Amino acid sequence: MLSIAVYLGLAIILLFVGAAPASAQVAMNVTLASNDVYRGRSLSMDDPALSLALGMDDPSGVYAGASVAIAAGDKDVRISSSSQYVGYARRSGRVSMEIGAIHRNHSDSLDPEYRKDFFEAYIGLAHKTSSVRLYVSPDYIPGNRLTTYLSVDTELARVKDWSITGHTGLTLKPSRRDDGTGDYDTEFDWSLGVGRTIGEFNVGLGIADSNDSDPEPFDGPLLYATISRAF
């Protein structure tokens, strides 16, 4: 079943698209993936997923967007994940700085430690093909304590139409031990991908993993393939 958040997110981005001035850039991306992967874990129970992403970038620096992924395979057809975001970016020389907020819904999440519906605020820096983002969430994990996530993404190499990309992520989250000490645990995830542009399509292969294990048989490392097209 589609959540209220999915409807709201799509409505917001459609309003942005309809109200966007002629100078604003509106983009859509459709991706078919063998697995809906997020921070080293599968959000689709290892089933394939078709995702649609819509986004708007205004010359003022304001941007917004929404995405939804529909998974099917061993399980029924369902929404495996969705997100809605809004932010502001500003360029200074060769560096781009941004701040924003994102709402995520992970309907197929297998780990009961994490909420399936949560918000994150973020700040980020980008230079050429590399970017760093720091996310802070008040409700990623049940309780009244913050969870932070540091994400580093970069293009490691490019040869003609081929590219190799890398990602590392570090989570600082409240400890699973409910002993009142206020301790935090760390979690590490990573991914590597190789992609190629073929005409109007981008195809890719990737591998991802996290040291926070999912239940068998969905534990990593995860191998996945993607094909996407931007409009």
Summarize the structure.
The chain is mainly beta and 231 residues long. The chain is built from 1 helix and 14 strands; from the N terminus they run αββββββββββββββ. The model has no long low-confidence stretch (mean pLDDT 88).
Tags for this entry?
single chain; 231 residues; mainly beta; Porin; twelve-stranded antiparallel barrel; two-stranded antiparallel sheet; 1 helix; 7% helix; 59% strand; CHP02001; signal
Oligomeric category: single chain
Name the CATH homologous superfamily.
Answer: monomeric porin ompg
- Span from first to last CA? 27 Å
Q: Give helix % range.
A: under 10%
How many runs of DSSP E, i.e. beta strands?
Answer: 14
Topology as a string of helices (H) and strands (E)? HEEEEEEEEEEEEEE
The number of helical elements comes to 1
Largest sheet: spatial strand order: 1-4-5-6-7-8-9-10-11-12-13-14
Number of individual domains: 1
Q: What structural class results from the helix and strand content?
A: mainly beta
User: What percentage of the residues does DSSP assign to strands (E)?
Assistant: over 45%
- Summed over residues and divided by their number, the pLDDT gives a mean of 88
Descriptive notes:
This protein has 231 residues and is mainly β. It has a single domain (4-230), classed as Porin (Beta Barrel), CATH 2.40.160. The protein is built from one helix and 14 strands, in the order αββββββββββββββ. A hairpin with a 6-residue loop joins β5 (62-71) and β6. The chain is globular and about 55 Å long. Keywords: Signal. InterPro entries: CHP02001. Pfam families: Gcw_chp. Residues 1-24 form the signal peptide.
